[in-house]
Design brief:
Elements lengths: L1 E10 L2 E11 L4 E5 L6 H8 L7 E6 L2 E2 L5 H7 E4 L11 H6 L15 H13 L15 H14 L4 E5 L7 H18 L2 E5 L3 H7 L2 E6 L2 E6 L1 H4 L2 H8 L3 E5 L6 E5 L14 E4 L3 E14 L6 E12 L9 H11 L7 E6 L7 E7 L2 E9 L4 E2 L17 E7 L2 E2 L1 H21 L13 E2 L3 E6 L5 E2 L7 H26 L2
Parallel strand pairs: 3-8, 3-9, 6-7, 7-8, 15-16, 20-23, 21-24
Antiparallel strand pairs: 1-2, 1-4, 4-5, 9-10, 11-12, 13-14, 14-15, 14-23, 17-18, 18-20, 19-22
The structure holds adenosine-5'-triphosphate.
The site of adenosine-5'-triphosphate has 10 residues, from α1.
GO molecular function: ATP binding; ATP hydrolysis activity
Pfam family, one: CbiZ
Protein name: ABC transporter ATP-binding protein
């Protein structure tokens, strides 16, 4: 649809955009990203014919842009500029109707019923019909932006060029606008080129992204290829981190503010214990990875609740019930990791370890009535199981990578299985050594300061410390339980 070939240009003989070549396919959204002053708007102006170029060529539908008259071009390309100020006291409907101007015929240039229908539809699409008879001067920045988009859409263009279209829009309208564009692109084969500052919007909505750096093309490709932390860091000269979107196969870019590593000492974590709950309270947030009912997966938390429930605990929505419980004791589930157990909390095993630069605090509560050998669990029938859960809490000082978290979880699980084996805990159905119970949870909570720890496998310093502490605490909890059972 658009082919940009070795394009260079700028102002007053100076090159702002240098030797760019790329093409834009029909029915796709192309995002142009890059730091301030990298030449995005200048490139856009050359693509829409507003700025003559110094060398190279821009082909629109296979024909040089210079071969189109201004009116012909206006029938193909609509533009939503960055600073579209309106100083005329037009109503919203009048402004949107201006988009139909290239289609008016004859000397009197009257609108037809079709023109009126297109204007009405464009206003409805962008949610501005409620202001139709209001002066554009009385609208907010975001409302005005939507009116100008309606005007551009009223042009029924084949190509829509947008310079920061989500500027001034609140979150809901940013998404609405991009969803709307996506619908138009898919439904009407509209081709969109949009300058975007929001890298996450670019990632979520663009089919292709062009990254400009000081007027040159740094890269072009799918968002997954362009949203690369190192490349973006080198262009934007700022700390960024690539994350995965929780629900879409699209990368997200998170800003990482530069700040001094905060001192975070595990000795500042305080345990409040009652027969009902063990609550670890931390004055700082820890990054957690857990299989817990509350705060499962990755999150940041500063409160860790191991809650004792009755053996007969049975509610339909345990997560909701647990959240309500947390609220009732003035805790916010958003920064809490919460596990439940029918095991007695006073039997917990707890240990602090400081070895070879690894500092840990580990606590385990163990109920084994429900012990299972994971390798043989397929032999079990679907029958109600007696209650019993092993909950393991691992607090550690250090900056764990994602793979480090996963390895820490594996090491903890294997150490737990080792302890159960050595304490003779068996799967009652298969008679083989149990590896855990069917409802166990592990929480790894790391301070994320200091040296990066990439590995926490069984023979790394972190892995050895985790293995030892988990083995010990699970064993202690089993012993405590057995001792209590022997008491008269
Ligand atoms: N009309 C102009 N006359 C002279 N120089 C200009 C003109 N417009 C832009 N420039 C210069 O060209 C360079 C690129 O500007 P451009 O507006 O294309 O960047 P941009 O990537 O769109 O930036 P931003 O993200 O800030 O909108 C800048 O150094 C700018 O000062």
């Amino acid at each position: 649809m658009i082919s940009v070939q070795q394009l260079s240009g700028g102002y007053d003989g100076k090159k702002v955009v240098d030797d760019l070549s790329f093409s834009v396919e029909k029915g796709k959204i192309t995002g142009i990203i890059g730091p301030n002053g990298s030449g995005k708007t200048t490139l856009m102006k050359m693509i829409n014919g507003m700025l003559p170029f110094q060398s190279g060529e821009v082909l629109i539908k296979d024909k040089p842009i210079s071969s189109y008259s201004a009116k012909e071009l206006a029938r193909i390309i609509a533009v939503l500029p960055q600073h579209a100020e309106s100083s005329f006291d037009f109503t919203v409907r009048e402004v949107v109707a201006l988009g139909r101007y290239p289609f008016y015929k004859g000397l009197l240039k009257h609108s037809t019923p079709h023109d009126d229908e297109v204007v009405q539809n464009s206003m409805e699409f962008t949610g501005v019909e409620e202001f139709a008879d209001k002066s554009i001067l009385l609208l907010s920045g975001g409302e005005r932006q939507r009116v100008l988009l309606a005007k551009a859409l009223a042009q029924e263009p084949e190509i829509l060029l947008l310079d920061e279209p989500t500027n001034h829009l609140d979150l809901a309208y940013q998404m609405k606008l991009m969803d709307l564009l996506k619908d138009w692109v898919e439904g009407c084969q509209l081709t969109v080129v949009a300058i975007l500052h929001d890298l996450n919007i670019a990632s979520l909505y663009c089919d292709q992204v062009l990254l400009l750096d000081k007027g040159k093309m740094k890269a072009i490709g799918k968002p997954g290829d362009i949203m690369d932390s190192r490349m973006l860091q080198s262009v934007y000269k700022t700390n960024l981190s690539r994350q995965e979107h929780p629900q879409k196969a699209k990368p997200l870019i998170a800003l990482v503010p530069r700040q001094q590593d905060e001192r975070k000492d595990l000795s500042e974590i305080v345990l409040e214990a009652t027969p009902e709950t063990m609550i670890f309270r931390s004055p700082f947030s820890l990054k957690t990875m857990s299989s817990a009912l509350i705060g499962g997966g990755y999150q940041w938390a500063n409160t860790f609740v191991n809650r004792h429930v009755n053996k007969n605990y049975n509610v339909d929505d345990a997560q909701k019930e647990f959240e309500d419980y947390l609220f009732s004791i003035s805790l916010n589930p958003n920064d809490t990791v919460g596990m439940m157990t029918a095991a007695r909390l006073q039997d917990a095993g707890m240990v602090s370890v400081e070895e070879k630069g690894v500092k840990l605090l580990v606590a385990s509560t163990v109920g084994t009535g429900n012990a299972v050998d994971a390798g043989r669990s397929w032999e079990r029938k679907d029958q109600p199981m007696p209650i019993g859960t092993i909950n393991i809490w691992i607090f550690m000082e250090g900056k764990l990578t994602d793979e480090g978290f996963v390895q820490a979880m594996m090491t903890a699980t294997e150490a737990k299985a080792g302890a159960l084996r050595d304490y003779g805990i068996k799967d009652p159905v298969t008679g083989t050594p149990a590896t855990g119970t069917s409802t166990d949870s592990v929480c790894i909570a790391a301070t994320q300061n200091g040296e990066e720890m990439r590995y926490a496998g069984t023979i790394t310093p972190a892995g050895k410390a985790i293995g030892k502490a988990v083995y010990q605490t699970v064993g202690t909890a089993i012993e405590n339980y057995r001792k209590r059972m022997l008491q008269p």
